[in-house]
Amino acid sequence: MNNPFFRNHGPILIHEICKLFEINIAGIKENLEVVDIKDLQSSKDKDITFFHSKKYKDLVKTTKASYCITNESLKNELPKNCIPLVVENVLLSVSKLTAKFYPDSINDDYDDTATNIDETKFKEKVRYGKNVLIGANVSIGSNCYIGHNSIIEKNVTIGNNCSIGSNTIIRNTIIKNDVKILDNCVIGKHGFGFFPNNTKNLRYPHIGVVLIEDSCEIGCGSTIDRGSMSSTIIGRNTYLDNQIHIAHNVRIGENSIIAGQVGIAGSTLIGSNVKIGGQAGISGHLKIGNNVEIGGGSGVIKNIPDNTKVMGYPAKNIREFLREK
Fold first, then answer.
1. Could you tell me which residues are beta bridge partners of residue 145?
2. Is 198 left (phi over 0), alpha (psi -120 to 50) or beta?
3. What is the pLDDT of residues 70-125, one digit of tens each?
4. CA separation (Å) from 8 to 49, 107, 238, 250?
5. What percent of the chain shows pLDDT beyond 90?
6. Contact 230/39 with Cβ under 8 angstroms?
7. Short-list 318, 87, 46, 97, CA closest to 205
8. 69-77 long-range contacts, Cβ below 8 Å, gap at least 24?
């Protein structure tokens, strides 16, 4: 699910995209339009996507995108319906084009649309503390609470029976029903995505949302980044302890429990019924199966299959870990 809040400035002509990348595609009509940029899975006809690693070769076979930004070594993996745009640096090119489609997604400056809740339609509907601000394009369901000094910035949807703690900032987020977000959380801000440069680092646009499903709890001081191309998702009835960082594009399944000070790097998929001990770290672009248990202080650097218990650094089967100790 792409961000429903950012305005798409497309369509963009394919010849303008080729000019941006400084490439030529023989025999292609210059007046063809590209409607949107999406990931491999969600792309449709007239969309452009990207393919930068062999680990996604199964997904690329089923993409419905008309165009794909890729490199010379991967272009032959594309299906026949998808025209390759071969570039030297795939992710840098994706960043430049995403900024063309969604120029408002690059920076996260303070929300100048936010006003005191006393001056909004929510003053009679929501129970709230002192110094609460509400931005534009916000909806809040029934029986909701917002604590002192919290800011619900622009582009937020909150369901019924939700509680937002004090000193919390939320934007670009969809919160379902019966969700508790405790004090000092930051949810829906830009993820940590950029390209290093000797003079000025190039920010990667983040056009995804944070989606928090029903009956979740987000502990004090936690940060959940919105997605870059897809969305960051917290599954139903999942509980996060205090001071947890969930990076962009992470997806966590249902009924999972994550203890304090855990960090999950970008684009990692966490299954359902997963338990993660405190201060564990999980690298990016991994797949953690269902019913997995990860011991506290572990460092996970490779995929973990279903129904597995691991511990240590690098994390390994808990029986092997205990035997070595």
1. 127, 163
2. alpha
3. 999 999 999 998 999 999 999 889 999 999 999 988 888 889 999 999 999 999 99
4. 15, 16, 32, 23
5. 79
6. yes
7. 97
8. 69/21, 69/93, 69/94, 69/97, 77/51
Of the listed 190, 206, 245, 248, which one is catalytic? 248
- Report DSSP state, residue 201: P
Other CB atoms within a 10 A radius of the CB of residue 50 amount to 27
Residues contacting residue 61 through CB under 8 Å, at least 6 positions apart:
77, 79
Token pair for 190:
């830009």
**Does the annotation mark 248 as catalytic?**
yes
Per-residue pLDDT of 182-205, as tens digits, reads: 999 999 999 988 877 778 888 889
Complete domains list, the chain, with CATH: 12-103 (3.40.1390.10), 115-324 (2.160.10.10)
Tokens representing 221? 């001081």
